[in-house]
């Protein structure tokens, strides 16, 4: 790659969002783009999360691109290795390999207002200049490491679930699992049979629904390969069921009582000890925090080599882990299921906009972006899976594809404008969109359910989830409303001087 490669579009990240953006660019006839990926392969969160038991909690036929159906999913809920293989397949099928720049971690991207382009610096010393940036780093990409006194001096293995140490053999070891989120409930059943003792530190119990997973038969796969419309119909049915569920989350949380009873029955089947059941029963409305799926979590917790500590980890003294309630345990290894930097994404510190401020500084009062994509003061910069585009009950691929529609029309609008131009979201438009989203958020279970979750930022605002159906979001992002943007051009006098200089040089 040239030291200062200039492209029309730079895509940051090669997970679902980045690869989806790249495919859409090629389908729009745009081939002048690169995909900057910090790791040595594609896959995003499905490359990084390789812990035992890692799998998706969205049905396989819905957790895939509509333009790249996979008739050969092996299970109704696919494992990490199958999803990662699918993303590799997408990269190959759509000819994305020549556009990939692996091991190119972006350290800084700065808007050059004189030249109307972004200057992107990578950790390996290369620089890419791009007219447009599509940031698809994702909210679940940077692990959150807890600040626990004594943790750094722990003599055994310590690692985050998203950075699993595959050289660490935990067989016969005493293991502490910190956290009870989506990763932890998959890790616990995988570790329990191996560990001599497994101690689970739980700050807040999750609601856990049964996971209706099964192998997809050869006949089903043959049918989807032979008659592709059957796979499309299956995807449509899965989507429709989830769309019908949205109003319970966003408008009528009181309707979720039946779902709570199903979750309690799931627990009761395996947890016979009343004291343990009390520890594991949430005190908030189901849906307030992410609803988890597992038919193996509770059976694992009921095993004699598992201890559940209903308190968070507060201190580490040598090989002793100490909970906030004073409970102590001697352990050989600590696994951190402590989540990610979602509302304070590190990439925001590396984006410097038109006014010389970083995106993190601009978002100090909370993340906000026009239609989940464009931030005021950051021309020709878009994000995939931006503020308030997350989902509580369906597939993020649906939201990603909606944002790709918006990205495509954004680029068409730039073509229509002609010449050297940029689009910068108007602060008034960003504010109006954000107010509408937050007004709708007030009634949702995420805001009224009585919990504290990673959906909320440090100010208690829900800047993560979309308070509506995926169909609504798709309509809202079908086209770009040019009135919501300021058109930025190079000052005429500067352009004239440059033209004269080039004529003289020529």
UniProtKB/TrEMBL annotation:
Q: Where are the transmembrane segments?
A: none
| One Gene Ontology term of the molecular function aspect | flavin adenine dinucleotide binding
Q: Name one Pfam family in it.
A: FMO-like
| Keyword Oxidoreductase attached | yes
UniProtKB keywords: FAD, Flavoprotein, Monooxygenase, NADP, Oxidoreductase
For this protein, the record's InterPro entries field holds:
FAD-bind_Monooxygenase_sf (IPR051209), FAD/NAD-bd_sf (IPR036188), Flavin_mOase-like (IPR020946)
Flavoprotein: is it a keyword of this entry? Answer: yes
This protein's cofactor list reads:
FAD
The family this protein is said to belong to: Belongs to the FAD-binding monooxygenase family.
Its biological purpose is as follows: Catalyzes a Baeyer-Villiger oxidation reaction, i.e. the insertion of an oxygen atom into a carbon-carbon bond adjacent to a carbonyl, which converts ketones to esters or lactones using NADPH and/or NADH as an electron donor. Thus, can convert bicyclo[3.2.0]hept-2-en-6-one into the oxidative lactone products 2-oxabicyclo[3.3.0]oct-6-en-3-one and 3-oxabicyclo[3.3.0]oct-6-en-2-one. Is also able to catalyze the sulfoxidation of methyl phenyl sulfide (thioanisole).
PANTHER family given in the database record:
FAD_NAD(P)-BINDING DOMAIN-CONTAINING PROTEIN-RELATED (PTHR42877:SF4), L-ORNITHINE N(5)-MONOOXYGENASE-RELATED (PTHR42877)
Q: What is this protein called?
A: Baeyer-Villiger monooxygenase
Q: Which organism is it from?
A: Streptomyces brevispora
Q: What is the lineage of its organism?
A: Bacteria, Bacillati, Actinomycetota, Actinomycetes, Kitasatosporales
């Amino acid at each position: 790659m040239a030291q200062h490669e200039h492209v029309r579009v730079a895509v940051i990240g090669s997970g679902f969002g980045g690869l989806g953006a790249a495919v859409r660019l090629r389908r729009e006839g745009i081939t002048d783009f690169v995909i900057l990926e910090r790791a040595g392969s594609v896959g995003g969160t499905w490359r990084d999360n390789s812990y035992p038991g890692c799998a998706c909690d969205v049905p396989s036929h819905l957790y895939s691109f509509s333009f790249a159906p996979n008739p050969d999913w092996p299970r109704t809920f696919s494992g990490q290795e199958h999803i990662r293989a699918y993303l590799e397949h997408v990269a190959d099928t759509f000819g994305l390999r020549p556009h990939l720049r692996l091991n190119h971690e972006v350290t800084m991207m700065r808007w050059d207002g004189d030249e109307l382009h972004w200057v992107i610096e990578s950790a390996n010393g290369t620089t890419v200049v791009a007219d447009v940036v599509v940031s698809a780093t994702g909210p679940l990409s940077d692990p959150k490491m807890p600040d626990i006194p004594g943790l750094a001096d722990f003599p055994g293995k310590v690692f985050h679930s998203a950075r699993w140490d595959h050289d660490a053999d935990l067989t016969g070891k005493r293991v502490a699992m910190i956290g009870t989120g989506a990763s932890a409930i998959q890790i616990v059943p995988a570790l329990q049979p191996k560990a001599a003792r497994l101690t689970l530190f739980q700050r807040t119990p999750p609601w856990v629904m049964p996971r209706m997973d099964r192998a997809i038969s050869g006949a089903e796969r043959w049918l989807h390969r032979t008659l592709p419309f059957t796979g499309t119909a299956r995807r449509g049915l899965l989507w429709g069921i989830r769309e019908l569920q949205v109003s319970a989350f966003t408008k009528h949380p009181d309707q979720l009582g039946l779902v709570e009873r199903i979750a309690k029955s799931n627990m009761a089947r395996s947890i016979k000890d009343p004291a343990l059941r009390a520890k594991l029963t949430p005190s908030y409305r189901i849906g307030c925090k992410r609803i988890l799926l597992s038919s193996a979590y509770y059976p694992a917790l009921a095993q004699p080599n598992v201890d559940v500590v209903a308190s968070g980890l507060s201190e580490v003294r040598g090989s002793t882990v100490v909970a906030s309630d004073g409970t102590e345990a001697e352990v050989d290894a600590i696994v951190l299921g402590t989540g990610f930097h979602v509302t304070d994404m590190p990439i925001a510190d590396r984006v410097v906009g038109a006014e010389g401020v970083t995106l993190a500084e601009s978002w100090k009062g909370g993340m906000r972006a026009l239609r989940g994509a464009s931030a005021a003061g950051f021309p020709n910069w878009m994000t995939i899976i931006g503020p308030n585009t997350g989902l509580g009950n369906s597939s993020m691929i649906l939201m990603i594809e909606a944002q790709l529609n918006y990205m495509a029309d954004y680029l068409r609008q730039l073509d229509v404008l002609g010449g050297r131009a940029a689009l910068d979201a108007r602060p008034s438009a960003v504010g109006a969109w954000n107010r509408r989203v937050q007004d709708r958020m007030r009634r949702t279970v995420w805001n009224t359910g009585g919990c504290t979750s990673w959906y909320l930022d440090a100010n208690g605002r829900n800047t993560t989830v979309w308070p509506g159906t995926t169909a609504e979001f798709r309509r809202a992002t079908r086209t770009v409303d040019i009135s919501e943007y300021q058109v930025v051009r190079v000052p005429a006098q500067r352009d004239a001087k440059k033209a004269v200089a080039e004529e003289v040089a020529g």
